[in-house]
Design a protein that fits this description.
The structure holds two protein chains of two kinds.
Chain A: H1 2-28, H2 38-41
Chain B: E1 7-8, E2 15-16, E3 21-22, E4 32-33, H1 36-47, H2 74-78, E5 82-84, E6 87-95, H3 100-111, E7 116-121, E8 127-132, H4 139-148, E9 152-155, H5 160-199, H6 203-224, H7 226-237, H8 243-263, H9 270-290, H10 297-304, E10 308-312, E11 318-322, E12 331-334, E13 344-348, E14 351-354, H11 356-359, E15 365-367, E16 372-373, E17 378-379, E18 384-388, H12 396-409, H13 417-442, H14 448-462, H15 465-484, E19 487-489, H16 492-499, E20 503-507, H17 508-512, E21 513-524, H18 530-541, H19 547-558, E22 567-572, E23 576-581, E24 585-590, H20 592-597, E25 612-619, E26 622-633, H21 637-646, E27 650-654, H22 659-669, E28 673-675, H23 680-692, E29 697-700, H24 707-712, E30 715-719, H25 724-728, E31 732-734, H26 741-775, H27 781-800
Parallel strand pairs in B: 20-27, 20-29, 27-28, 29-30, 30-31
Antiparallel strand pairs in B: 1-2, 3-4, 5-6, 6-8, 6-9, 7-8, 10-11, 10-12, 12-18, 13-16, 13-18, 14-15, 14-17, 19-31, 21-26, 22-23, 23-24, 24-25, 25-26
Classes of the chains: A mainly alpha, B alpha+beta.
Chain lengths: 46, 809
């Protein structure tokens, strides 16, 4: 049982690290720069 | 001609009654326009296939401005271009964006310009970033596309401080994101360890979980918490212990203790270390988000100064030169609608000048040869020849900009409550920890390691999350609550400073008063009745652009009168207007002097009164009526004064207007101290003198002439719709027309400080209980974590009470 827990913890850390990398990428790309426009953009037809 | 029915322009959406320009029918609907400019903009939009813009319900009112190509050249604009491979990049500040539709339209129109590769327009900042091929498109083309749509473009280069702020925010966001992600992982391990503490846990599993905790906590403390260590190091160097030092000490000692505990198989405090850092980073991020500046005012001040001047040579010819080439003594020509390029003296001609930039007075003033004019003022009525008095670099606008920058730099710093508290709290905790360590080592005979660890546990207990959250949680609640009440507070330090003020200064025109005249009285003569006078006056004034004219048209409209069409319209600057209505009714509107000149007998002597303005109306050569106008008080003016006075604050009025007018307004709103005739630097001096007497000053103003005083004051407040430079320097912005919100802003800041003090007091209660337990070694990590979470929750909930703050609280 101990081994399975260890594997799960390590696995969750890897998964989290992946999400963290995506987050870094998003900040660097400026995804958080203007949080006002996107919510209006989705209402545009084209 | 009979009364024309009201029509709505297909482009700009304004209602008008003059002869429309008919456009081509599309989709079976006829298009009509109020002017050629609107027609041009409409066909431009439709030709680009973006006619859908007009179907959008959220589109704002557009105004069409003729792009003044003389104000920029490709050479000027090329300075703002950054080359980016084969392409070029330019940032353009677009003014006039009111709705998401504006963004939609501008982005689509700009991307259709040949050579433009990429357009992105930020809705909140109004900044268009464009990438284009310099061979195919020029920046001037882009500028004219924007301005032909009715928006005004300005070259924009983010100044150093702005770039710095953006970098700082991204940095903080990364650190916080990392901390949050790792702390969430950590909490799972911690819960397992808590369970193990009560129910028992296998030795291997406990050790494994502690090592994984160490793995995830270390980056939180040393990467995410790095700003606190830097701040702590700064405060150690300057021997001024602050909040940063407390947090750094708490996080570091919790981490060190836990590493030691892991190695010696004891209970760990990893989650305390990570929680402190994460919670305080939330606070910092929230604080930064309320502090974002709306726009860069000083650069807009430079933009108000014209770049070009028309130089008149000795032989009478004229040529356009850059303002930098204008020397004192040069003769310049300033046409109707242009801004005066430098400070100058009128040599020839007479005109009306809009001096609102310099005096704050919205009403244009009649100036003739011999009068001097400041740069940036607008020539409203007729072309004049002027002589330059000073070079462009020393003109009025540049002097104001320099004053503002100096005042900003010299602004007195108010030490924040949290820093004041930690100023004595940190040394006290260190002292206690050292005493604890020494006592255990010397008297109880414990080994050095255990004694040091016990000292560390004292420090980590003394630094609760509640302490770090006490201020930011209250600030966030106060800022979001006041935003719904129409008050924008720029940052937490503003709240502290606002709560500490003891003197308030108000500008008059545009702040206490609307800055726009309104009709208060209508008298009729020679058996003319109200309706015929008002009808005649409104029909004529409809065609004039003077502020007084707008007031009369507004007054007539409010009373249900519609202007009739009028011909042979003639306006004489500073005097009045004349015109002929249907059925050959001859109408004159204007000053007493104008009517007398036109041969109308005015049977009474009009008393001169600087407070009110009168417009006389004559119909068919006989005096028919008099409209009395006054610059009306803004809503809530009396209320704000009475509430501030009730709160035992000094209130004074400082204005560039005549002393008599200022006195009248002061009496009306109940202010005892009134100072008139003040220039921007006198206002600045007034503020600094009060500050030297030890007073904390709240300055409320709206104009360019208030900007230096606003920059120097302890807290500055502007109203939405004020000049850009005033808004940039404002710590508090009141949206809407209700002045009483200033008093509300003051009471909300007082209430916030009360909440902050309660929060800090709670953090101390926690310490008074926690520190003795830690010193005697009775506090285990599980109870510490529970206490820490409970106190953070208490502080957050207490701060949320501010969300129920009422307007007249």
């Amino acid at each position: 049982m101990d081994e399975s827990l260890v594997i799960l913890i390590v696995l969750s850390l890897c998964l989290g690290a992946g999400c963290w990398l995506i987050f870094i990428w998003a900040v660097k790309r400026g995804q958080f720069e203007d949080v006002e426009k996107p919510k209006h953009r989705m209402l545009d037809d084209d | 001609m009979s009364l024309m029915s009201e029509q709505t322009c297909s482009h700009c959406g304004t209602s008008f009654r003059w002869k429309a320009i008919y456009g081509t029918a599309e989709d079976g609907i006829n298009t009509i326009f109020c002017c050629r400019g609107c027609q041009g903009a409409h066909s431009m939009i439709c030709d680009a296939g973006l006619g859908g813009f007009y179907k959008r319900s959220d589109r704002g009112i557009l105004t069409v401005t003729e792009f003044d190509t003389s104000s920029y050249t490709d050479a000027d604009l090329s300075q703002h271009i950054v080359s980016d491979g084969n392409l070029c990049r330019i940032d353009i500040l677009v003014c006039g964006i009111t709705c998401p539709s504006c963004v939609w339209l501008l982005e689509r129109m700009l991307v259709r310009v040949p050579g433009v590769e990429y357009v992105s327009l930020s809705y909140s900042g109004g900044i268009a970033s464009l990438r284009f091929d310099p061979v195919e498109a020029t920046p001037l083309q882009l500028f004219s596309v924007i301005s032909r749509l009715g928006y005004s473009p300005r070259p924009y280069s983010a100044d150093q401080s702005e770039k710095e702020a953006r970098r700082e925010r991204d940095d903080l966001l990364l650190r916080f994101g990392t901390a949050l992600f790792l702390t969430m992982q950590l909490m799972a391990y911690s819960y397992a360890l808590y369970a193990g503490f009560f129910q028992g846990i296998g030795g291997f599993m406990k050790l494994f979980l502690q090592y994984v905790s160490l793995l995830v906590t270390t980056p939180v403390v040393f990467y995410s918490g790095w700003p606190f260590f830097l701040g702590a190091w700064r405060s150690v160097k300057t021997a001024a212990p602050g909040m940063d030092l407390l947090i750094a000490m708490g996080a570091l000692s919790a981490w060190l203790y836990s590493v030691w505990a892991t190695l010696s198989n004891k209970e760990t405090y990893f989650e305390s270390a990570a929680m402190i850092v994460t919670f305080v980073l939330i606070g910092r991020l929230l604080e930064l988000s309320v502090r974002r500046r709306a726009m860069s005012g000083i650069s807009s001040l430079y933009a108000a100064a014209p770049q070009r001047a028309t130089l008149v040579d000795e032989d009478g010819g004229s040529r356009i030169v850059s303002v930098d080439e204008v020397r004192p003594g040069d003769l310049l020509m300033v046409r109707q609608g242009e801004r005066f390029p430098v400070d100058c003296l009128i040599i020839e001609g007479a005109t009306e000048v809009d001096q609102s930039l310099a005096t704050g007075e919205s009403q244009s003033v009649l100036l003739a040869s011999g009068d001097d004019v400041r740069s940036g003022c607008v020539n409203v009525a007729a072309p004049v020849t002027v002589q330059a008095l000073r070079p462009a670099g020393q003109s009025y606008l540049m002097r104001v900009a320099a004053m503002v920058q100096m005042a900003q730099a010299g602004k007195p710093k108010v030490q924040q409550l949290a820093d004041r508290v930690s100023g004595w709290f940190v040394p006290a905790v260190i002292l206690l920890a050292l005493l604890n360590c020494a006592g255990r080592f010397l008297y109880l005979g414990e080994d050095a390691g255990t004694a040091i660890m016990s000292a560390l546990s004292v420090i980590l207990i003394a630094c609760p999350c509640a302490m770090g959250l006490a201020v930011p949680a209250a600030v966030l609640a106060a800022c979001s609550r006041s935003a719904t009440l129409g008050i924008i507070l720029r940052g937490g330090d503003v709240i502290e400073r606002l709560a500490s003020i003891n003197s308030t200064l108000f500008d008059k025109t545009g702040t206490v008063t609307c800055g726009q005249p309104g009709v208060i009285q209508l008298e009729t003569y020679c058996d003319y009745d109200v309706s015929s006078v008002l009808q005649a006056a409104a029909s004529l004034e409809e065609l004039a652009s003077h502020p007084l004219a707008r007031a009369i048209v507004q007054y007539a409209a409010d009373h249900g009168y519609r202007p009739e069409s009028c011909h042979d319209f003639l306006a004489i600057p500073g005097r009045g207007i004349s015109g002929v209505l249907p059925n050959n009714v001859q109408v004159l509107c204007g000053s007493e002097l104008f009517l007398v000149e036109q041969g109308v007998t005015v049977p009474f002597v009009q008393t001169y009164d600087s407070f009110t303005t009168s417009v006389l109306v004559a119909i068919n050569g006989r005096l028919a009526g008099r409209l009395v106008m006054v610059d009306q008080l803004r809503g809530g003016a009396q209320e704000v004064i009475s509430r501030l006075t009730a709160a035992k604050l000094d209130v004074a009025l400082i204005s560039g207007d005549h002393q008599a007018t200022v006195n009248r307004i002061a009496t009306e709103i109940g202010v005892t101290s009134a100072h008139g005739g003040m220039t921007p630097d006198q206002k600045l001096l007034f503020v600094t003198e009060l500050q030297q007497r030890g007073l904390k000053v709240l300055m409320v103003g709206d104009g360019v002439n208030d900007a230096p005083a606003l920059a120097a004051s302890t807290v500055s407040c502007s109203l939405s719709g004020s000049s850009d430079i005033a808004l940039e320097n404002a710590d508090v912005i009141i949206t809407g027309d209700d002045l009483s919100r200033i008093a509300t802003a003051y009471s909300i800041s007082r209430a916030t400080m009360a909440i902050i003090k309660q929060n800090l007091a709670w953090a101390f209660v926690y310490n008074i209980i926690g520190i003795p337990l830690a010193m005697t070694g009775h506090l285990t990590p599980v109870y510490a974590a529970v206490a820490m979470t409970a106190s953070s929750l208490l502080v957050s909930l207490n701060s949320l009470r501010l969300m129920r703050f009422k307007h007249h609280g």
